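Tokens in:
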């Protein structure tokens, strides 16, 4: 019964839409007929100088021929088919051909019968331009009305400045202004060509060059700058950093089809982060391109309509994870972090909101048991992604107890709180350093994996860990350090010419983490395939090449305490099986570890006994 009602509503809606389109066809035909009549009166008056001298019979003959050709020929060639946008060049060109056809036929008639009907042969040459102008004006006003009705609501859209007033900039401004659901509203343009200053595109002024961006962002209250150029201009990173220092997003628009493959893959939205584009170029040049083939339907099944909590939501991985989770229509996203500044940045990037009063924001430290329990009791999430952790090897080698407090005790607090509210899916973000751990970081994350395995077996719910290597471009990766060294014209520091690491891009890593939550079995560690390990030196040289700094050298510093020359993805005793649905995910088992058996002194001694650089 429901399906039948739905079909009836759909059919009724389709009929109404069809009737509306048909009415517009008749309206345009009537307007064009009226335009010809008006043009005939004007042309004949100009030719005779008085209405009294006009021959009614001749006027009627010319009018009948003009209207017959205009409406008949126009309908035949599709001028009234609703296939052409109002006031477009294509419609105007077709309109011109129709008027020209009418002129040719009428002129041929007048050559033969001018004296018989009392109409001079020059009359139609005077009439035709007026007919064309009047019909074009009708269409132009219709187009203006349509664009006005479709304009994005200024009060709801984010004010942006478009950098680049060429073809792409014009295309972008037009698209943003004509899309009622657009998230962005252009308030100004800038271009590197100073001669374009004070020109306008769709009514939006070009207010200067990129040197004026800082002043314009502040004066106009813009929240983002969109670079509308096929290729990012040299020195753009300086502009991007300056915009970020003002709290303004810097996005790249390379065209509607840029970055799209044959399947219009979801990883390529219209607006893209230019840093991520460059990171991808660097990684793929040294590691090769990898198609991770993420099945979104599997992710939809366990995230759609669910309450999802992410710890460490303000970090590089946590914020990207939150952004991707929102694509799967959760009932609610809860973002937990102890750093309110990072949370604010992450929230704005996801919801374009600048208020931490958002109901989904939780400012808490995972080491605070009371705060963690309160957050879980209040929000009662169905799915948890535990990202919060200390991640720097050298920092934890100097302060191993801090690693214990956050990565072990903090993880235990999250696991226990999740078990109390009966979370359905728990995904613990781990690291490749947990495989045969040789550092405090690796030992702490290995313990977290084993705790997660214990809770999975105890609760009967899906508790899994996801293990992967370095996320290139994240705050804990080598790239931010290399970029600071480049900005200060210092040599890039690499530990050892033979040191290698596994690298992933943040969007790829997060997409696979979401998929792992769907494909994993309770108590498992899911290991992401990141391709072949990449020499850090090769990454450094590629960065120097991309950022045009051949003048800088590479300096070797030697391995630091707790660092390995090469990372591994599996411990020696771990057996792994590739997932049947996605070959880039492997399953491994880690022995569960009961919380009651946790002891810092024993853990610390175990870390001391196994720390080192190489794999024994």
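Residues out:
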């Amino acid at each position: 019964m429901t399906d039948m009602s739905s079909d009836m509503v759909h059919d009724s809606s389709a009929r109404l839409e069809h009737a509306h389109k048909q009415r517009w066809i008749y309206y345009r035909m009537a307007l064009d007929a009226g335009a010809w009549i008006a043009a005939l009166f004007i042309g004949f008056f100009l030719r005779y100088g008085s209405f009294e001298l006009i021959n009614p019979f001749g006027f009627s003959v010319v009018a009948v021929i003009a209207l017959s050709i205009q409406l008949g020929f126009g309908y035949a060639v599709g001028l009234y088919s609703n296939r052409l946008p109002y006031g477009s060049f294509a419609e105007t060109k077709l309109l011109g051909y129709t008027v020209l056809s009418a002129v040719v036929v009428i002129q041929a008639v007048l050559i033969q019968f001018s004296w018989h009907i009392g109409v001079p042969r020059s009359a139609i040459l005077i009439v035709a331009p007026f007919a064309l102008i009047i019909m074009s004006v009708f269409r132009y006003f219709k187009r203006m009305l349509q664009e006005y009705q479709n304009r994005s609501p200024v009060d709801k859209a984010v004010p942006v400045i478009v950098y680049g007033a060429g073809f792409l900039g014009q295309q972008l401004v037009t698209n943003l202004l004509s899309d009622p659901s657009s998230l962005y509203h252009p308030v100004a343009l800038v271009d590197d060509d100073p001669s374009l200053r004070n020109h306008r595109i769709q009514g939006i002024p070009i207010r200067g060059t990129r040197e004026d961006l800082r002043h314009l962002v502040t004066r106009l209250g813009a929240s983002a700058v969109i670079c509308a150029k096929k290729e990012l201009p040299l020195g753009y990173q300086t502009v991007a950093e300056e915009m970020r220092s003002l709290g303004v997003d810097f996005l790249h628009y390379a065209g509607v089809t840029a970055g799209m493959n044959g399947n219009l893959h979801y990883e390529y939205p219209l607006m893209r982060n230019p840093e991520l584009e460059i990171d991808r170029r660097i990684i793929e040049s040294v590691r090769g391109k990898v198609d991770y083939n993420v099945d979104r339907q599997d992710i939809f099944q366990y995230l759609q309509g669910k309450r999802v909590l992410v710890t460490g939501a303000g970090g590089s991985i946590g914020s990207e994870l939150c952004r991707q989770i929102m694509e799967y229509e959760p009932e609610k996203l809860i973002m937990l972090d102890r750093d309110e500044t990072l949370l604010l940045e992450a929230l704005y990037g996801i919801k374009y909101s600048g208020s931490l009063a958002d109901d989904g924001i939780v400012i808490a430290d995972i080491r605070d048991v009371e705060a963690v329990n309160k957050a879980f009791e209040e929000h009662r999430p169905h799915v948890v992604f535990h990202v919060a952790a200390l991640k720097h090897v050298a920092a934890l080698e100097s302060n191993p107890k801090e690693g214990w407090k956050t990565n072990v005790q903090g993880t235990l607090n999250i696991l226990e709180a999740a078990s109390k509210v009966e979370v359905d899916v728990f995904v613990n973000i781990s690291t490749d350093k947990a495989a045969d751990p040789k550092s405090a970081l690796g030992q702490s994350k290995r313990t977290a994996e084993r705790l997660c395995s214990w809770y999975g077996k105890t609760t009967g719910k899906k508790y899994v860990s996801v293990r992967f290597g370095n996320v290139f471009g994240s705050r804990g990766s080598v790239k931010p350090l290399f970029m600071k060294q480049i900005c200060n014209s210092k040599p890039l520091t690499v530990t050892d010419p033979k040191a290698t690491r596994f690298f992933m891009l943040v969007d790829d890593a997060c997409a696979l983490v979401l998929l792992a939550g769907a494909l994993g079995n309770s108590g498992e560690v899911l290991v992401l395939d990141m391709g072949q390990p990449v020499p850090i030196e090769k990454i450094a040289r590629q960065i120097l090449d991309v950022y045009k700094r051949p003048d800088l050298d590479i300096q070797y510093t030697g391995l630091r305490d707790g660092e390995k020359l090469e990372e591994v993805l599996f411990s020696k005793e771990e057996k792994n099986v590739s997932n049947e649905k996605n070959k880039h995910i492997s399953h491994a088992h880690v022995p569960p570890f009961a919380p009651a058996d946790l002891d810092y002194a024993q853990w610390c001694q175990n870390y001391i006994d196994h720390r080192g650089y190489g794999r024994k």
